[in-house]
Amino acid sequence: MNNKQVEKIVSFLKAKPGYLKTGNYKLALMFGVTEKVAERAKKEAKNSISRPININFSKKQVYKPTPTTWFETKPQFDPNNVIFIPDLHAPFIKKGVLEWVKEQQIKYNCGTVIFAGDIIDGHAWSYHEHDPDGMSVGHELEAARKQLEPWFEAFPDAISLMGNHDLLIQRKARTIGLSKHFIKGFGDVIGAPKGWKFMLEYTKDDVLYKHGSVGDAFKVAKESRISTCQGHFHSKTFVQWSVSEKDAIFGMQIGWGADRHQYAFDYGTSFTSKPIISCGIILDRGKTPIVKLMPL
């Protein structure tokens, strides 16, 4: 554990004790550290304050809290480093995935955030059979928006690729002959912040990011001769290279971030291969791909 990081936070908390009420997670985001570091700093700061602080709330002296929020003090990560976040399938996201993903962003100093798509599941409005005892369309969408709120708070600026589950709303509209002019933007549907951009594909530093559909990332990379990062195939996670006389390209496949024990995924109960919770880290301006698996 970095003692300098702890000392820095302790000094801040002693100067502004009101922040002792801040949760470990938000405090960690403020200083770009892990929650364990934030927790230790809070304990040390509390122990070092020997007597209560008295504030005179008289008419002549009124305490005014600082306008600075944790959003305004969020750490500045390196935009050349990318974190590639897997399919979430809200409202069925597995508990603890957000905290784990945020730890990877801090550890690898990733300033560019890209979601692989399938932000929501859409089980209730899928073309496939859905559980009659599950949530209704309205309830599932409401639950998804609520589960995504802390993700929007943690990642106020992001690129989100449109997955096949995300596109279900547009497909359903076409099925009933409804013009796109009657449909809300996907960001409005899920309550995403203005800093989120939605697109089918995105290219950065000669690396193609897409949700995926007919072939895994390595197959797409070899055929197009461009390094490719994909989600979609939940039970696949890897980085594989292809080298020719002229280039060296990789395919990165990441899994998902959902809870396979939820009713929406009963179809996979008998599958031998189980979904993998993983994310991708792309460093050195697209030259160093790393796959990280969440501990079971």
Provide a descriptive summary of the structure in words.
The protein is built from eight helices and eleven strands. With 296 residues, the chain is an alpha/beta fold. It has two domains: 1-75, no CATH class; 78-293, Purple Acid Phosphatase, chain A, domain 2. Helix 1 crosses helix 3 (35-48) and helix 2 (24-31) packs across helix 3.
Q: What are the main properties of this structure?
A:
single chain; 296 residues; alpha/beta; Purple Acid Phosphatase, chain A, domain 2; 2 domains; 5-stranded mixed beta sheet; 11 strands; globular
How does the SSE layout of this entry go?
Elements: H1 3-15, H2 24-31, H3 35-48, E1 78-85, H4 97-108, E2 110-115, H5 137-154, E3 158-161, H6 168-175, H7 186-190, E4 196-199, E5 201-204, E6 207-210, H8 217-224, E7 227-230, E8 238-243, E9 248-253, E10 278-283, E11 288-293
Parallel strand pairs: 1-2, 2-3, 3-4, 6-7, 7-9
Antiparallel strand pairs: 1-10, 5-6, 8-9, 10-11
Which residue ranges are poorly predicted, with pLDDT under 50 across at least 5 consecutive positions? 51-73
- Indicate the radius of gyration in whole angstroms: 22 Å
Q: What is the helix content? A: 25-40%
CATH architecture of the largest domain: 4-Layer Sandwich
Domain module count: 2
Strand residue content: 15-25%
Q: Count of DSSP helices? A: 8
How many individual β-strands? 11
**CATH class value of the largest domain:** Alpha Beta
Broad shape:
globular
Secondary-structure class:
alpha/beta
The CATH homologous superfamily of the largest domain is called: Metallo-dependent phosphatases
Sheet with the most strands? 6 strands, mixed
Strand order of the largest sheet: 4-3-2-1-10-11
The average pLDDT score comes to: 89
CATH-derived topology of the largest domain: Purple Acid Phosphatase, chain A, domain 2
Distance between the termini: 23 Å
Series of H and E elements: HHHEHEHEHHEEEHEEEEE
